[in-house]
Design brief:
The protein is elongated. Strands 33-34-36-38-40-42 form a six-stranded mixed beta sheet, covered by helices on one side. By secondary structure, the protein is mainly beta. Helix content is about 5%, strand content about 30%. The N and C termini lie far apart (about 80 Å). The protein is built from six helices and 43 strands.
C-alpha cells in the first residue's frame, strides 16, 4: 500500500513526507502481520492477518489489474514494484512464450498457432528449459495440489507464490515448491539440472512466533534440482536481493544478481544497488559494480556482464569483466524512468532510474536495451556504439503511431527480436506480439490482442464457411447458390483482415444485416460492399474478385496496403470503385480496364506508382477518375476523365505514344 502512495509523490518538496512514510512502512506492520503457525519450509502452513488490516485479493498489477487470484495479503506493501511483462523463445526458435494479463501464452514464431500454457501467472519471469520441453513459472498457490510423489493434498494457506513446472503444450503441471513464503523469479541453469529462484521462505521459517515486517521484500537466492528437490540457499537472508531473476553464467558455474547495499536496505528510494557475481554453490561472492539500475546480462563467452549504471550525467550502458570492477561505458540510455512505487522522479535523480531490459545478443556483437515503455527499445552495436531503434509502426494504425513496447528479447540465433507491445489505449495486457530483425525492419505480427481472449457468450460469432451453408446467414442456401458463394468470399475477405479491424459480422445474422453489405437482384447477390473509415488493415484481399455481382465497392479511408489485386478485373458488374485514402502501392493493374460498366474510380491518396494504363481511357462508361496524391510517372492518357487534372502534375501523352 505504501508503494501505491509513494508512486504518486513527485518532486523535492515531498522528500520529508517520503521519509515519514518510510518509517510508517516499517513500523505499521507491527501488530498486523503475525505468523501463527509455521512448519517445515516445504510443508503446509497457515498465515492470518489481524482484522483491522482487512482482506486483500492479491497484489495489484499494472493498470490496477489483478491477475494473481487469491494470493492472500499483499506481498509488496511498500517495497519495489518491478512489475513487467515477459517474453521468451524456445531454444530452437520455433515458439515464443509471453504473459498476458495473468496468463502464460505460447505462439508459433511464424504466427500459425497460439495456445494457453498456464493461468494466473504474475508479471515476473518465465524460465524455459534448455531442452525446450518444459517451462517454470510462479503462480498463486492452489488449494489442492499434487505432490511430487503424485499424492493430492490440501493446502491451508493462500498467502504466496509457488513455482510450477509445465510442458510447453500446457500439459503435466507439477508444483515444485510448497512453503509459506513467496517463491518466484526462476532461472534454469544452462545444463537443465538446476533452477535458481528468489524466496523469503528461509527468513519466515526462522521467525516463528515473531512479528514480521512485510513479507516478499527480504528475498534470498536459492537453487533446487529441476524436479524441486535438493533446495539449497546460496545467499543468506541479510543479502537483500533485488526483485529480478538471477542470471546464470553460460558455463553454469556462477550467478549474477543485484542486491541492495546494507545502508539502503530500509530506504524507499532505489539507491545503493550493487552487481554481484556468486558461485552457484554459494561458496564465494564478490561485487563487480555499484550504482546499478538494471538486471545484468552475460556475454555469450561468459567473460563480461552488461548492465545499466547511473551517474552524474544520467544513465548509460556499461560492460564489466567477471572479476573486474572497472566498467566500460558503451552508450547513453535515453528516456530512463523510476520504478513504480517510488516517489523520486528519475529525471531529478539518475540513481532512481530503472532499465527493464539489457540483453546481450547471441553472437556477442550487440546489446538490446529497453528503457521505458513509452520510448522504443534499441540495439547497440558494440564495435561502433551505433544505436538502432526498434519500433512497430504502420502495422495497424497510422504512420505516426509507435506501439508501447512492454518486453523484448533476442531469438536464439540472434536473427530476430520479439516485441510484446501495447497501443496507447493503456488497456491491461499486450495488444500484439511481433518480431523484427535486429535493424528494426521486416516486422511480422504473430498474435494480436483479440486472439488472446477466447470467445464469450454474448459476443458475435464470427462467420465461417459452414455458417454460409447453415441456413441462417443465407436463407435457403440450396435455392441461392450464388449468394452462398458471395458469403464465402466475404468470409475469406474478413479472415484476411487483422482481427482488430474486422467488421462485426455475425454467424447469427442474415447476410443482408451485415454492416456495409447490401443484397439485391434476382438471383440474389451481394450488390454493394461499403466499409469506409474503419481502420481495416491487410494486403487488399484478392477474394474481393469473387463478388462478381458487386455494383459498388467502397473501402476508402482504411489501411489497406500492397498492390491492387488484378482479380478486381473480374467484377464485371462494378459501377463504382473507391479505394482512395489507403496505403496501396505499385502500378494500377491493366485488368481494371476490363470493367466496362465502371462509372467512377477513386484511387487518390495512395502510394501508387508507374505509368497510368491507357486502358483506363478506353473504358466506355468511365465518367470520373481521381488520382491526386499518388506517385505516377510518365504521362496522362488523352481522354482520361480526371477529376482534378490540375493537381496531377504530369503532361498529356502524345497521340500514339
Amino acid at each position: 500500500m505504501g508503494g501505491w502512495v509513494l508512486g504518486r509523490l513527485r518532486g523535492r518538496r515531498e522528500r520529508a513526507l517520503i521519509a515519514a512514510l518510510a518509517i510508517v512502512a516499517v513500523v505499521a506492520p507491527i501488530g498486523i502481520w503475525r505468523l501463527l503457525e509455521v512448519g517445515d519450509a516445504r510443508s503446509d502452513a497457515t498465515i492470518t492477518v489481524d482484522k483491522e488490516f482487512g482482506a486483500h485479493s492479491g497484489s495489484t498489477g499494472r493498470d490496477g489489474h489483478e491477475p494473481f487470484g487469491d494470493c492472500g495479503p499483499p506481498r509488496f506493501p511498500w517495497g519495489p514494484r518491478f512489475e513487467y511483462d515477459v517474453v521468451a523463445w524456445s531454444p530452437d526458435g520455433s515458439e515464443v512464450y509471453f504473459t498476458d494479463r495473468g496468463d502464460l501464452q505460447g505462439v508459433r514464431s511464424d504466427g500459425s498457432r497460439r495456445w494457453q500454457i498456464a493461468k494466473t501467472v504474475p508479471w515476473t519471469s518465465i524460465a524455459v528449459a534448455p531442452d525446450g520441453v518444459q517451462l517454470v513459472y510462479a503462480a498463486c498457490r492452489p488449494e489442492t495440489v499434487t505432490g511430487l510423489d503424485g499424492t493430492p493434498r490440501v493446502l491451508t494457506d493462500q498467502t504466496g507464490f509457488e513455482l510450477f513446472r509445465v510442458r510447453r503444450d500446457g500439459q503435466s503441471v507439477e508444483q515444485l515448491t510448497a512453503n509459506v513464503g513467496v517463491d518466484f523469479y526462476p532461472a534454469w541453469s544452462p545444463d537443465g539440472r538446476r533452477i535458481a529462484f528468489l524466496s523469503d521462505a528461509g527468513r519466515i521459517e526462522r521467525t516463528v512466533g515473531r512479528v514480521l515486517p512485510p513479507s516478499g521484500v527480504f528475498l534470498s537466492l536459492y537453487t533446487m534440482a529441476a524436479d524441486g528437490s535438493d533446495v539449497q540457499q546460496v545467499l543468506d537472508d541479510e543479502f537483500l536481493m533485488l526483485h529480478q531473476p538471477p542470471q546464470w553464467s553460460p558455463d553454469g558455474q556462477h550467478l549474477a544478481v543485484v542486491r541492495y547495499s546494507q545502508a539502503e536496505r530500509w530506504s524507499v528510494e532505489p539507491r545503493g544497488r550493487e552487481l554481484y557475481v556468486v558461485r552457484a554453490d554459494g561458496a564465494t561472492q564478490w561485487r563487480v559494480a555499484t550504482d546499478v539500475v538494471s538486471a545484468p546480462s552475460w556475454s555469450p563467452d561468459g567473460r563480461r556482464l552488461a548492465f545499466a549504471r547511473a551517474g552524474a550525467g544520467g544513465v548509460a550502458l556499461h560492460t564489466v569483466g567477471m572479476a573486474d570492477t572497472n566498467s566500460t561505458r558503451v552508450s547513453d540510455i535515453p528516456q530512463w524512468q523510476a520504478p513504480r512505487g517510488y516517489g523520486i522522479p528519475a529525471d531529478e535523480d539518475p540513481a532512481a532510474a530503472w532499465i527493464d531490459t539489457v540483453a546481450w545478443s547471441p553472437d556477442g556483437t550487440r546489446i538490446l536495451v529497453r528503457s521505458n515503455p513509452d520510448h522504443p527499445p534499441f540495439v547497440v552495436r558494440l564495435a561502433t556504439g551505433e544505436t538502432t531503434q526498434l519500433t512497430i509502426v504502420s502495422i495497424r494504425y497510422t504512420d505516426s503511431l509507435v506501439e508501447e513496447v512492454l518486453a523484448a528479447t533476442w531469438s536464439p540465433d540472434g536473427a530476430r527480436i520479439v516485441l510484446v507491445a501495447r497501443d496507447y489505449s493503456k488497456s491491461p495486457g499486450p495488444d500484439l506480439v511481433a518480431t523484427v530483425t535486429a535493424d528494426g525492419t521486416d516486422a511480422q505480427v504473430l498474435a494480436t490482442k483479440e486472439e488472446f481472449a477466447p470467445w464469450q457468450p454474448g459476443q458475435p460469432k464470427v462467420p465461417d464457411a459452414a455458417a454460409c451453408r447453415a441456413g441462417v446467414v443465407v436463407r435457403d442456401p440450396d435455392g441461392n447458390p450464388d449468394l452462398v458463394m458471395d458469403c464465402l468470399a466475404l468470409v475469406e475477405f474478413q479472415q484476411a483482415l487483422e482481427r482488430r479491424s474486422r467488421p462485426t459480422w455475425s454467424a447469427d445474422q442474415g447476410i443482408d444485416a451485415w454492416d456495409g453489405v447490401r443484397v439485391g437482384g434476382t438471383p440474389r447477390r451481394v450488390e454493394a460492399l461499403v466499409l469506409p473509415d474503419l481502420s481495416m488493415s491487410a494486403r487488399l484481399p484478392g477474394a474481393l474478385g469473387k463478388l462478381t455481382g458487386l455494383r459498388t465497392l467502397d473501402l476508402s479511408h482504411n489501411l489497406f496496403w500492397a498492390e491492387i489485386p488484378a482479380a478486381l478485373g473480374s467484377l464485371s458488374q462494378l459501377e463504382h470503385l473507391n479505394l482512395g485514402h489507403n496505403r496501396l502501392m505499385g502500378p494500377i493493374p491493366p485488368e481494371l480496364g476490363e470493367l466496362t460498366k465502371l462509372r467512377t474510380l477513386d484511387l487518390a491518396i495512395n502510394s501508387l506508382s508507374g505509368d497510368i494504363p491507357r486502358e483506363l481511357a478506353d473504358m466506355p462508361n468511365l465518367e470520373e477518375i481521381a488520382l491526386t496524391g499518388t506517385q505516377f510517372t510518365g504521362c496522362v492518357p488523352p481522354g482520361l476523365p480526371l477529376r482534378d487534372r490540375d493537381e496531377l502534375d504530369l503532361p498529356t501523352c502524345e497521340p500514339g505514344s
